[in-house]
Structure prediction request, 74 residues.
Amino acid sequence: MPTKNPRVNITFEETTACLLAQLANQEHKSVSSLAKELILEALERREDMVLSAIAEIRDRERTKKVKHDDVWKE
Prediction:
């Protein structure tokens, strides 16, 4: 039965594959589910880094600031 979700094929060096397999075994997960979990975690961290960089740019002293109440006026 074909899956609805796209598949990704990743090739690791032997040492990385062994480490991933050991971690999956310790956590009682399949290698693929652990790999998926780790990739999603990394993507969230990257997103956080980008959003933090944007926030730093917007939070500079000379940046025009708008009061909260003024933003939400009707």
